[in-house]
């Protein structure tokens, strides 16, 4: 059990609160196939792309597959596909809303720390009526160095005005885990995917879904 002095929980978004990875995969895969003749499966996406920034994924495409593209092109192409898709179809992760409600009832403060942009947060969490659970949102626009850099969590810690011992982070990827722990926070890792769980084996707290979170901190 984590120390009972915890007063705030910082949540990641994609893969932690919302089940968005298949949405991203289904919008990236046609671009990779049509533009670069690269065909990836959903398992490939989870293993090699999920949880990473656009900058990293563009670099990965070049390093691993020799694909010469730019952040600007991939940004424009993926956003065009997102716009044609319906982000409100993205489901919540199991026990997400129940966990947020339970934490609020216990009096814990909550905020969101994500590499996604404000539009995604507003669209998906707004659709599921979850925006009011959070005190503030640290989105991609607000930081110069996204995860795995500690900057997003350092900014969130400053905004909370609490000690690091009073805050925990909840993340589903090694990218986010690295960011939170580098900022000096205790991080609960939550994932059911075998590949990511292997990467997250370094985590002291590793759970399969959010139903196990409450018992760790309350």
From TrEMBL:
PANTHER family: FRUCTOSE-1-PHOSPHATE PHOSPHATASE, GLYCEROL-1-PHOSPHATE PHOSPHOHYDROLASE 1-RELATED
Signal sequence interval, chain numbering: none
Protein name: HAD family phosphatase
InterPro entries: HAD-like_sf (IPR036412), HAD-like_SPP (IPR051806), HAD-SF_hydro_IA (IPR006439), HAD_2 (IPR041492), HAD_sf (IPR023214), PGP-like_dom2 (IPR023198)
Gene3D superfamilies: HAD superfamily/HAD-like, Putative phosphatase, domain 2
Domain of life (superkingdom): Bacteria
UniProt cross-references to SUPFAM superfamilies, sorted A to Z: HAD-like
Organism in which the protein naturally occurs: Sphingobacterium litopenaei
């Amino acid at each position: 059990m984590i120390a009972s002095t915890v007063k705030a929980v910082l949540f990641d978004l994609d893969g932690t609160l919302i089940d968005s990875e298949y949405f991203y995969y289904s919008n990236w895969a046609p671009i990779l196939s049509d533009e670069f003749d690269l065909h990836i499966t959903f398992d490939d996406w989870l293993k090699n792309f999920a949880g990473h920034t656009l900058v990293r994924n563009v670099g990965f495409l070049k390093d691993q597959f020799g694909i010469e593209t730019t952040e600007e092109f991939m940004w424009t192409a993926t956003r065009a596909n997102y716009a044609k898709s319906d982000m409100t179809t993205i489901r919540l992760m199991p026990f997400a809303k129940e966990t947020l409600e339970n934490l609020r009832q216990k009096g814990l403060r909550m905020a969101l720390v994500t590499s996604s942009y404000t539009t995604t947060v507003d669209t998906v969490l707004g659709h599921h009526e979850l925006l009011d659970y959070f005190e503030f949102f640290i989105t991609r626009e607000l930081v110069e160095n996204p995860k795995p850099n500690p900057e997003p969590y350092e900014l969130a810690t400053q905004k909370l005005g609490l000690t690091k011992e009073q805050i925990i982070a909840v993340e589903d990827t090694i990218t986010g885990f690295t960011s939170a722990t580098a900022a000096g926070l205790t991080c609960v890792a939550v994932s059911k995917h075998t590949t990511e769980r292997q990467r997250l084996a370094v985590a002291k707290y590793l759970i399969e879904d959010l139903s196990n979170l409450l018992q760790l901190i309350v």
